[in-house]
From TrEMBL:
InterPro entries: Bep_BID. This is Bartonella effector protein BID domain-containing protein. It comes from the Bacteria. Residues 7-55 form the Bartonella effector protein BID domain. It comes from Palleronia aestuarii.
Length: 108
């Protein structure tokens, strides 16, 4: 999940908690004290969901970076170098280069 996706979702949820669905409790002139308190608590909880979504995005992003760094380090550690030719092998290659090569078509 991309970080900006979770950040955007968190911002939208914090701005409009009703996006999660209808909140419990009532508002308005006829709402009782208990209903208004329930509504206020539901709004606080819904707003907190936004920060949780943001934190999840940050943790996922950090985990992805850590995984990628581990893979890169493992690749470097497991890489095998190309061995250098010994002095005798280099001399053999030089002597082969010095010999005139036959026509490539005659080898076919």
């Amino acid at each position: 999940m991309k970080t900006h996706g979770t950040t955007s979702a968190a911002r939208r949820i914090e701005a409009e908690p009703e996006q999660l669905g209808p909140l419990l409790g009532r508002t308005g002139l006829l709402a009782g004290r208990a209903a208004r308190q329930t509504r206020a608590q539901a709004a606080r909880v819904a707003e907190a969901v936004g920060s949780v979504v943001r934190r999840i995005g940050e943790v996922e992003s950090a985990a992805a970076r850590s995984y990628e760094a581990g893979v890169a380090a493992r690749r470097v550690a497991e890489a095998t170098g190309v061995p250098v030719l010994s002095e005798n092998a280099q001399a053999a290659v030089r002597s082969l280069r010095a010999v005139e090569a036959p026509d490539a078509r005659s080898l076919v």
